[in-house]
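User: Let's play a game. I give you a shape written as tokens, and you guess the letters that built it. Ready? Here's round one.
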């Protein structure tokens, strides 16, 4: 059956992959947070960006739990901070957001199988290697979300979501504390550890 509207109206903001892991402590507060971007297209080019809050409640982290951005495209980092991450309350309201140090990523690679049990992203810089690990993966679910259903409140978003039931954020070989929690997206119960593939953010005509 052909689509009613084969061309989505609006302006493409960026497209790519956007997996994340949000860990919580025993009281339900975020204990560690990681949001990764592998951007295939944006107005400022391609690139890979990791935002890590090893200590979300602190302005500065520690060597074992840093608050930092690792990136191979500084212009993309600035673009995402202003136009996307800065509109996600859980990340933008963190004490460290305005002063996050930015480090050039030297090696970024994925491993594992998102169709299997385990998937991993590894991001390395001098003296710092971060591994994001997703395990116990669910079958994928295709989502088409309207602005009132996404964190920015401003975009239409299309994506393939693969939730995980177990996840780790590993910094220089040591796992950060916390466990994944539950969340609801567009009425769908999922987890705070997620793989988003083929994720495209579009600014609707009325907002562009």
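Assistant: Ready! My guess for every position:
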């Amino acid at each position: 059956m052909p689509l009613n509207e084969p061309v989505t109206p609006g302006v493409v903001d960026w497209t790519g992959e956007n997996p994340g892991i949000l860990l919580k402590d025993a009281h339900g507060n975020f204990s560690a947070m990681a949001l990764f971007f592998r951007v295939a297209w944006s107005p400022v080019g391609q690139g890979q960006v990791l935002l890590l809050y090893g200590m979300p409640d602190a302005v500065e982290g520690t060597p074992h739990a840093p608050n930092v951005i690792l990136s191979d495209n500084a212009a993309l980092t600035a673009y995402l901070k202003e136009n996307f991450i800065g509109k996600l309350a859980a990340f933008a309201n963190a004490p460290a957001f305005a002063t996050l140090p930015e480090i050039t990523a030297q090696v970024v690679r994925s491993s594992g199988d998102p169709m299997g049990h385990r998937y991993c992203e590894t991001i390395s810089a001098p003296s710092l290697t971060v591994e994001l690990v997703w395990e116990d993966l669910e079958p994928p679910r295709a989502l088409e979300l309207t602005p009132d259903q996404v964190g920015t409140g401003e975009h239409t978003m299309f994506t393939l979501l693969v939730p995980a039931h177990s996840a780790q954020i590993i910094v220089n070989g040591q796992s950060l504390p916390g466990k994944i929690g539950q969340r609801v997206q567009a009425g769908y119960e999922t987890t705070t550890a997620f793989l988003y593939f083929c994720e495209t953010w579009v600014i609707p005509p009325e907002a562009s």
